[in-house]
Amino acid sequence: MFTKLKKQQEGFTIIEVMIVLVIAAVILLIVFLAVPALQRNSRNTQKKNIAADILSAASEDSSNNNGAIPAASTSTTASSAAARVLGLVNTNQIITTLTIQTASGTAGSAVTVTPAPTLSTVTLVTNAVCNGNAVSVGTSARQIALSYQVEGGGGTGTNACISSGL
Fold first, then answer.
1. Helical (H) or strand (E) element with 125
2. Residue 28: how many CB atoms within 10 A of its CB?
3. What is d(CA 36, CA 122) in angstroms, rounded to the nearest whole number?
4. Which positions ≥6 away from 166 have C-beta within 8 Å?
5. CA distance readout (Å), 125 to 39, 92, 144
6. Nearest CA to 140 among 162, 107, 114?
7. pLDDT tens, residue by residue, 57-67
8. Domain boundaries in the chain?
């Protein structure tokens, strides 16, 4: 008895292979677009935590100096109030310079933060509060606002502000 031999087809058609390659390419594209945003969000969260630590350190510095608010200075001078405050915080080299300035004027009026914060510098403003992401003159000399930048899309910085009353 003779049986008819069937030739079995094995493998994939070119269309099936192309569909799998297109799906893999879409998945890779999504991953490559998502990873930088996740890294930026992680750095921004870390910077916000460091900013909160700097405010806490300013409060600690005030307590250690009989309630005196840190005086205007820049952290490049080792004996300055800014250096003392920055020395109390582990910034992981994310923040390299802290400048302290004092706000003056009518309560609620805008404060020009000098120098303007960058991605690696922050400015602590005494007698000030945050008004959104801007700094305004506060109602008490014991109020402190910290102006800093977080990364936005495209590598640009976006101003941010947090404040505290001592």
1. strand 121-126
2. 10
3. 24
4. 58, 59, 62, 69, 142, 143, 144
5. 29, 22, 6
6. 107
7. 888 888 888 87
8. 15-165
